[in-house]
Amino acid sequence: MVRRVKKAVSAMSYSFQKFYKQVSTIKPSNFALAAIVVAISVFLFGGGIYLIIVKPYPAIYYGGRFLFVDPQLSEQWVSDSIIAMILFAFGVIGLLLMYQSTKYAYNPRQAYLMLMIGVALFIIAYISVEAIIHYWKGV
How many structural domains comprise the chain? Predict the structure, then answer.
């Protein structure tokens, strides 16, 4: 199999060989891979697959006002997913800020500030998700 690929590559023109070599030896950075994995995770946890498959309504105008969160637990609207994805992203950013604060031991003020902002973002995200589930969804 390897010989066949090498033979096919050697038969290509120089520009294609150069392009093939660049593509086959590419190594993305760890930060880029981690960011992609986190983005995919937030998308999946926020209900992205459900949005793609079911194609629900963005919001509903009911009783003289817009409802952005479906009151039933078994249903979901686009705005439900967007709100969930934003809140999950806040939680992940909060966790990352808490982690980054440990790297600034030589500067306690900056470490403490990053830790407090991270904790605040994480707590806001957690309380918001719980409030939506408990009060709006009625669970």
Answer: 1
